[in-house]
Amino acid sequence: MEMKKRISLELRNRTPVEVAELVVDNCRSSDGEIEGLTDEFKELEFLSMVNVGLTSLAKFPSLPKLRKLELSDNNITGSLETLAEKCVNLTYLNLSGNKIKELSTLEALQNLKNLKSLDLFNCEITTLEDYRESIFELLPQVTYLDGFDAEDNEAPDSEADDDDDDEDGEEGAGPLGQYDDDEEEDEEGSEGGEVGLSYLMKEDIQDEEDDDDYVEEEEEGGEVN
């Protein structure tokens, strides 16, 4: 599906200004450029364009509120100055799997003063000697590179934590909701158990009485004989 059509579908009868998150992964860009995404998306905070065949960011719109940008698995070689000019509030940028080869390509990101996390997995630049040290020196505002800080501490995944919280809540609600039913079943089972036990005890008592009567009859029979 072409990017322009995909973006139109993702709007779902909304106007661009009403959209805060937009995902157009795996669609086709026209001539390797962005099509259908305009300056009208001024409230956009999260944009994902994974594997869409991008080779250039020249037509990237002005998105002043954009904070998180996913551009992994494309064919971007440079033009990162466009992001520095039009997405000034970026805090997270994923360029994994692109054609980034040299440190000089990343110099434009120095103007992204709020950039805290940068991913360059599977880019040729990661094979450079002292790659991590060089990036942290070039971009001092960046705290996490490829998911780890300069001391190799893993970046916290706020989204994963939120998901875990949601799952915990759902799981907690499930057993809690089932708890009353189980409790009722246990109570019923307990009552049934008591009845069954009482019944068995009565049967045992009756059997003992029957045995006693039988013994007495034998003794009386013996006396008669």
Any key phrases for this structure?
U2A'_phosphoprotein32A_C; 4 helices; Leucine-rich repeat, LRR (right-handed beta-alpha superhelix); LRR_dom_sf; 40% helix; alpha/beta; 225 residues; 6-stranded parallel sheet
- CATH class of the domain at 3-155 reads Alpha Beta
Q: Provide mean pLDDT, rounded.
A: 80
User: Which structural class is indicated by helix and strand composition?
Assistant: alpha/beta
List low-pLDDT spans: 159-197
Number of strands: 6
The amount of helix comes to 40-55%
The profile of the biggest β sheet is: 6 strands, parallel
CATH topology title of the domain at 3-155: Leucine-rich repeat, LRR (right-handed beta-alpha superhelix)
CATH hierarchy: architecture of the domain at 3-155: Alpha-Beta Horseshoe
The largest sheet has its strands arranged as: 1-2-3-4-5-6
Shape descriptor: globular
CATH-level-4 superfamily name of the domain at 3-155: Ribonuclease Inhibitor
Through-space gap between termini: 108 Å
Give the count of helical stretches. 4
Strand content: 5-15%
Oligomer, anyone? Answer: single chain
Secondary-structure element string: HEEEHEEHEH
Q: What is the alpha-carbon Rg in Å? A: 36 Å
